[in-house]
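Module 6 notes. Inverse folding takes a fixed backbone as the condition and produces residue identities as the prediction. Think of it as a translation problem where the source language is geometry and the target language is the twenty amino acids. Below is one complete input and output pair. Work through it position by position during the lab.
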């Protein structure tokens, strides 16, 4: 069955954000094309090495699911959960680990899969946390990077899209835990921008 036109996707009427206009930012088709590209690069990089892909919950679940289905190498998956924004759309400045990985990553190639890198706080935390377990390598993959605000002293290895400092929803990204199911990425037209 053909995918619906992403232009026609709307916020569910029952959503309390329903009255706020969303503007299409990156279409579902553009996302899928980028994910295919990123999966090909990762497959080439890790061929014959069976990396562990670690998805950062909740936001990265959709990107992770699409990404792994396009890999043509052996891999394992695991997930961890990090506290993110509460009901506000600004970073709290602290990171809490709510669920740790179960795999032993010592001597393994680790690939951290993020939905979005905003201030960089989460990936900085994850990098030092992963390195404590002496993996062979740690690679960072993110679908989205807010390059104007990210404060990083190491590179993100694979970036899908550089995005401006606006609040994005859809394709796994939420506002107050909602709107994660939208196939495309949207920005709020007015008040939700940071
Ligand atoms: P950082 O630690 O500031 O880099 O923020 C990373 C986390 O904040 C992401 O994994 C998201 O959960 C959340 N986040 C940052 N920007 C956005 C956004 O525009 N929309 C939805 N969530 C966001």
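Target side of the pair, the amino acids:
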């Amino acid at each position: 069955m053909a995918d619906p036109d992403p232009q026609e996707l709307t916020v569910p009427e029952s959503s309390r954000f329903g009255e706020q206009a969303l503007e299409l930012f990156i279409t579902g088709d553009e996302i899928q094309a980028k994910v295919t590209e990123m999966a090909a690069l990762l497959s080439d990089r890790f061929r014959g090495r069976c990396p562990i892909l670690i998805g950062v919950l909740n936001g990265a679940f959709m990107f992770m699911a699409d990404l792994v289905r396009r890999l043509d190498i052996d891999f394992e998956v695991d997930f961890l959960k990090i506290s993110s924004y509460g009901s506000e759309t600004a970073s709290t400045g602290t990171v809490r680990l709510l669920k740790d990985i179960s795999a032993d990553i010592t001597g393994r190639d680790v690939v951290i899969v993020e939905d979005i890198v905003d201030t960089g706080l989460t990936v900085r935390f994850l990098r030092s946390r992963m390195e404590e377990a002496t993996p062979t390598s740690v690679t960072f993959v993110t679908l989205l990077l807010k390059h104007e605000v990210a404060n990083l002293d190491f590179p993100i290895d694979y970036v899908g899209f550089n995005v401006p400092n606006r609040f994005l929803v859809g394709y796994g990204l939420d506002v107050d835990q909602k709107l994660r199911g939208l196939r495309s990425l949207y920005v709020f037209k007015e008040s939700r921008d940071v």
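Reference fact for the lab report: Residues 56, 59, 84-85, 91, 114-122, 167-168, 173 surround inosinic acid (CB under 6 Å).
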